[in-house]
Design brief:
The complex is a heterodimer of chains A (about 210) and B (about 220).
Chain A: H1 10-29, H2 35-48, H3 51-63, H4 65-73, H5 75-80, E1 92-96, E2 101-106, H6 115-118, H7 123-126, H8 128-133, H9 138-144, E3 154-159, E4 165-169, H10 181-185, H11 190-194
Parallel strand pairs in A: 1-4, 2-3
Chain B: H1 28-42, H2 48-56, H3 60-65, H4 68-82, H5 88-93, H6 109-112, E1 135-138, E2 157-167, H7 170-173, E3 182-190, H8 191-195, E4 203-210, E5 214-216
Antiparallel strand pairs in B: 1-2, 1-5, 2-3, 3-4
Helix pairs in contact in B: 1-4, 2-4
The chains are: A mainly alpha (about 210), B alpha+beta (about 220).
């Protein structure tokens, strides 16, 4: 079971559909949950909360030195002041990549992830390969993502073992001096904010 | 609990495979599980660490093979049964056979979209024992119950990088022994301390460590 441990296969799908429907029916009939609230939660994570929010935060930090300073000082307060779709709970921490230091975030014990700014974690983030290797061989993980850093780069891995949550502030790509915040946000990938990627280069995206 | 969920440093799981353009959910039921988990969490029947402990207690073979949302589902079902909120007969029947109990609060659709994460900081009851820059050694703790000190970082010498404030202590919050707030620190380790002398000197790893996990280095 080397890969795809978190993917669903046919038999599980059918079984799980039935079991989940049964549980939901019971919870609704007992008035423990409001089906409209469940719909709203699903809708929120499918359409409103995702890495676009984090991308806008990073673009803002690249463009506005005062915001960047506040973000690195207290990311929860700085992000909430922006009024994004989902208020950020306490203890969001932004960690900055520099030419000498690359940050990578993992949760080896479960799947802790900054939902409010990145949305739901991708399957690989919750998978055994990532959780086992990120703290021991982060360069190998980066290679899995096709990323090679300059050889003298220090790698700093953050294991999210408490209720603190981490977002990586990737390095701003060269040649973007005249870019608007919207243009910059298009360069910020989800993976660059986890630390398994770097921001896109201007030539990577059609502006 | 020294079980399979504590994966840091293990070998043999292969390469990380990212799925291009991954959807939020791979099947509609995954979204329903997430929503039920959030909505029932809102009722304050259990803590986030009790939720995590329920997943950690799954059979290790199942833990490795079940999808993440299936693990969530099994743990949710387990907690609902443990709290007497649903019965095995109802699960078998696929419908409610008795009226529900009154919950402290239920989540409305209006509040569901802007749900905020719980607040875990608590007022301090003692001065912090460590300061940024201090050398610390993690304790060799092996509780049979929930802990957030990973195995790979036990009995290791590191440096306190930051004090994150006083927080709910997961080890007691998970076992109905109270919030027991404790200071939380970011503690950084050289890769060689964790993985041996041939580890890459360019790599450092930090954990978020509660004060009871630490002693002076």
């Amino acid at each position: 079971m080397n890969d795809h441990e978190d993917h669903d296969h046919g038999s599980e799908l059918g079984e799980m559909q039935l079991r989940v429907r049964a549980l939901e029916t019971i919870l609704i009939e007992k008035r423990y949950v409001d089906p409209a609230a469940l719909d709203e939660i699903v809708e929120t994570f499918q359409t409103r909360i995702g890495p676009r929010i984090g991308g806008r935060i990073v673009a803002r930090a690249w463009s506005d030195p005062d915001f960047k300073r506040r973000l690195l000082e207290d990311a929860t307060a700085a992000v909430n002041a922006e009024g994004h779709a989902s208020p950020v709970g306490s203890h969001l921490i932004a960690v900055e990549n520099t030419p000498g230091v690359h940050n990578m975030v993992v949760c080896t014990l479960c799947s802790c992830y900054p939902w409010e700014v990145l949305g739901l974690p991708p399957v690989w983030y919750k998978s055994a390969p990532y959780r086992s290797r990120a703290v021991r061989n982060p360069k190998g993980v980066l290679a899995d993502f096709g990323v090679t850093l300059p050889p003298d780069t220090a790698i700093r891995v953050w294991d999210s073992t408490a209720e603190t949550r981490f977002i990586v502030l990737p390095m701003r790509p060269a040649g973007t001096d005249r870019f608007s915040e919207d243009q910059l946000a298009a360069l910020v990938t989800r993976d660059s904010m986890i630390g398994t990627g770097v921001a896109l280069q201007p030539e990577d995206v059609a502006q | 609990m020294n079980s399979i969920h504590d994966m840091g440093g293990m070998d043999g799981f292969g390469a990380v495979r990212a799925e291009p353009d991954e959807p939020a959910f791979h099947a509609p039921w995954e979204g329903r599980v997430l929503a039920m988990q959030r909505a029932m969490g809102y009722a304050r029947l259990w803590t986030i660490d009790q939720s995590r402990a329920s997943i950690e207690m799954l059979d290790p073979a199942l833990y490795l093979t079940a999808s993440y949302y299936k693990k969530w589902f099994l743990a949710l079902e387990h907690r609902l049964r443990m709290h007497g909120l649903i019965g095995p007969d109802e699960l078998a029947a696929g419908k409610s056979l008795r009226p529900g109990v009154q919950l402290e609060r239920t989540l409305s659709a209006a509040d569901a979209g802007a749900m905020k994460r719980g607040e875990f900081a608590r007022p301090a009851t003692a001065q912090p024992q460590f300061r940024p820059g201090d050398r610390v050694r993690t304790r060799n703790l092996n509780p049979a119950t929930h802990t957030r000190l990973p195995r790979y970082a036990r009995d290791k010498v590191g440096t306190v990088e930051a004090n994150r404030g006083c927080h709910v202590y997961p080890d007691t919050a998970a076992i109905d022994a109270g919030e027991n707030p404790r200071w939380l620190y970011t503690v950084t380790f050289a890769a060689s301390e964790l993985w041996g002398d041939d580890a890459d000197p360019a790599i450092t790893v930090s954990i978020e460590a509660f004060e009871p996990y630490l002693m002076p280095g």
